[in-house]
Structure formats: C-alpha cells, structure tokens
Design a protein that fits this description.
Oxoglu/Fe-dep_dioxygenase_dom; about 35% helix; alpha+beta; metal-binding; about 325 residues; Jelly Rolls; about 25% strand; iron
Length: about 325
C-alpha cells in the first residue's frame, strides 16, 4: 500500500491510503497479490474506503466518459426527467437552490448489459442515432472496466476473510448501477457546503471524476475527514451499507460528502454494486468477538426501506441496523 501524506489543517498530517491495483504482476498466489489483498482489507477496516491507483483501461476513456456525462447532463430537464426508476437513487434527481440546480444526477441500471445502455441512450437521444450509439459505446466500455475493478476488490476481500468459496456466487448475483453526476457552487457564487455527509446503500461504490476537487471522506477509525485529490487513474473504493452487514461490522460503511469551492463544474461517475438475491453474513465472519449482528436481507428491500424514512435518517448507516440488525 502506498501512503501519501496529506495536510489536514495546522501542523497535522495524515496518510492517504492509495493502493496500486494496476501492476501487471498482480496475480493470485503471488507475494504481491497477498500483500495487496491484505492492504485492501486493512484499508477497508480502518477507513471504510481507499484510493485505487488503476490504469487498466484504454487511453482516452476517462476523457470520453466525462464528455458523455457533460453531454447527458446538458440535456433539457424535460428529457432528463424521462430517467425514471422506482428504486431509490436510481433515476434522475436534482437539488435546487434559489431556483437553480446545484446538483443533478442520472442513473443507468444494469449498465453492464449493452441492451440497457442502448435503451437508455435511445431514451435520451431518440432522434439522433449517432449520439446515442456513441454514448452507449462509451458508457458500456466504462462500465466493463469498472466492473473488472470492483470484482478485483471483491476477490481480494473475500479471500482475505477466507470466504473465497462465495466469490463466484457474489459476482454472478451482482447488479451494477452507473450514476453520472454534476455539482456546482451556489447561484450567488458562494461555495456550496449544503451536501450532507451520507453512506451509500450499495455493497461497494467506486467514485471517479474530473479534475475539480470537493470530495471528502471520513476515516472510520481516525474519525477525521480526508480531502480527495483527483486524477484520471484514481478511483475511490467505498464500503456501502450492504458490505457492512455482510462483514458483520468488520467493515463500516463510509461517510462521505462533497463541498464545492470551485467556480467550474464538477462532473463525477458513481459505480454502485447491488446484490440481486439475499445477503447473509457468512458463518466464517461470526465468532465470540463478532457475534452475529444482522439478519439475512434482500438488497432491494433495504432500498425500499430507505424510501420510507425521513430525509435526516436516510443518510446514516444506522438505517441498516434498524432494517435488519439483531437487537
């Protein structure tokens, strides 16, 4: 694991957990694999997140996906409103301030299915086949790369907990959601700090973005906030509420937020994994120091429960304990 020193204010510094997942020699049953695998687990247990240094994707894909996000988010509102989905956080959302949008997001569910990508792009550009074909190709290629990264992280985590026998079942039951997001300052030109800290309801989330800073991540064990400095090959891997329950609280869901200081737009991509079936804590994760803390639950059921809560409760991981926790 590579640690980069970051300033926290005053004379205090912290080490940002950056793990290289691009090494061509990173293969199972090697010393490098074992070291990296253990670093991933350590970072997830200590922080609830880590930064993956990952460049196993075609040159130009980073710029292409950001251009696709901008093109999509620049569409008229009446078109973006067609992105409907009954699942929480899966369709079009917007946050307004003084009548102006300061945050927008659209979602493509089952994004690794090219037919789903094609259906979404035709919905957004029904009369422009060139635009919707180009968008579909870019998004599908990007989602394929992100799924490979997510599955690499999963293989390492499952192996580190000696539950690798469940890996293929997990991968086979995974549904991926890609969200394309835009953030801006307040209409009066002041920095936007109104985005509340929250946890994701996913199993794993992977965040990627343009060059505009603003993402902040809370370290679970240190109880401090880190500022993320973006680059095209850096992906923030975040623990969601579902992996917290699956791991029996060994990994805690990560609180994160965005604070917009820049006058430029911040475009980001959120790649979220969800399980189609029942999520159960493996028996190997239960012992005298970690008594079983969660009942088995359906991931979509957690999302439905989320929709019933008041806004101030939705952001917190305590909702998962309320939904399926063992008293």
């Amino acid at each position: 694991m590579m640690l980069r020193i970051v300033k926290m204010g005053g004379n205090e510094t912290r080490e940002l957990p950056i793990i290289n997942l691009s090494d061509k020699n990173l293969k199972q049953n090697t010393e490098l694999w074992s070291f990296t695998r253990d670093s991933v687990r350590e970072a997830m247990e200590h922080h609830g997140w880590f930064v993956a240094e990952y460049n196993n994707f075609p040159t130009g894909l980073h710029q292409s996906i950001l251009e696709a996000a901008k093109e999509l988010l620049d569409l008229p509102v009446e078109i973006k409103l067609k992105n409907e989905n009954h699942k929480a956080g899966h369709g079009y959302i917007t946050m307004m301030s003084d009548g102006q949008p300061v945050h927008e997001g659209l979602g493509i569910d089952q994004v690794n299915d090219v037919q789903q990508c094609r259906g979404f792009s035709r919905l957004m550009w029904p009369d422009d086949h060139d635009d919707n074909d180009r968008f579909c190709e870019t998004v599908h290629a990007y989602a394929k790369m992100q799924a490979e990264l997510e599955q690499l992280v999963i293989r390492m985590l499952f192996e580190s907990y000696n539950v690798e026998k469940y890996t293929e079942k997990y991968i086979g039951g995974t549904r991926y959601l890609l969200r394309l997001l835009k953030y801006r300052r307040l209409p009066n030109g002041e920095p936007n700090r109104k985005f509340i800290s929250h946890t994701d309801k996913s199993f794993i989330s992977i965040l990627h973005q343009n060059h505009i800073t603003g993402l902040m991540l809370k370290s679970e064990k240190e109880d401090v906030w880190y500022h993320f400095t973006p680059s095209p090959t850096r992906f923030v891997v975040i623990a969601g509420d579902a992996i917290m329950a699956w791991s029996n609280d060994r990994i805690k869901a990560c609180y994160h937020k965005v604070e917009m200081e820049s006058v430029e737009m911040r475009y980001s991509l959120g790649f979220f994994s969800f399980q189609e079936g029942m999520i159960s804590t493996p028996e190997e994760m239960v012992d005298k120091d970690h008594p079983l803390a969660y009942n088995p639950f359906h991931h979509d059921g957690l999302l439905e429960y989320y929709e019933t809560l008041e806004v101030h409760l939705k952001a917190h991981r305590t909702m998962t304990k309320a939904y399926c926790g063992i008293p």
